């Protein structure tokens, strides 16, 4: 079975200093993956509350340096072969943090560089950072989750052709303070229908981000399979697996568990992108 980890961070991300392209790529190969893509963080605006903690005005990585290092490691690993006898692949990507206030910068940046794949994610909204808790202040769970989903959908529609994978739609549930730790289709059916229909019609991939479904302060979000099934009903076929790793040990984390979930939901393939072209491999 050919599996690709499509969401990883390296030493070029502001928060990826615990690993390197070489270390994470080698880990992915040793775990039997067919390839790995490095989608380092790119956010043009950091909320003041986060800037105070990390002394960052932006989180824009050096694309040229990242891609040169990817080429170097690809060359070093050129003789590595997967279980199927294929060359192990290392892809060049970006996780673009979509924010309405930065649209002009985002469009220019994506048009300036070439990537294998582009993940569109929301990390910050309303000048707040969910990780540090500010986003949730004054909101109940339904308002907080719903507004996040609506923001992600709005920015994806604006990006249009300039992205390939919708990243961690349930990121907002990871660090939330509510007993309601998961996002379910039944609670947000209207926005999910709009979002999933858009992805299916445009040939975009829905990401299963395995980092989301981990214990954080005693809360473990779960993946709602009704979301996968609804995506399938709209004609969606592209489901992307991503570990969202920031250290080499987490590449490909829990992939076999979620491959079975994908299959049970009626999907026959997992998706990755090469030179922005959708590639499907049987699961």
TrEMBL record:
GO terms for biological process: L-histidine biosynthetic process. It comes from the Bacteria. The keyword Amino-acid biosynthesis applies. Pathway: Amino-acid biosynthesis; L-histidine biosynthesis; L-histidine from 5-phospho-alpha-D-ribose 1-diphosphate: step 8/9. Its EC number is 3.1.3.15. The keyword Hydrolase applies. Residues 4-100 form the Polymerase/histidinol phosphatase N-terminal domain. Belongs to the PHP hydrolase family. HisK subfamily. PANTHER family: HISTIDINOL PHOSPHATASE-RELATED, HISTIDINOL-PHOSPHATASE. This is Histidinol-phosphatase. It comes from Candidatus Cryptobacteroides faecipullorum.
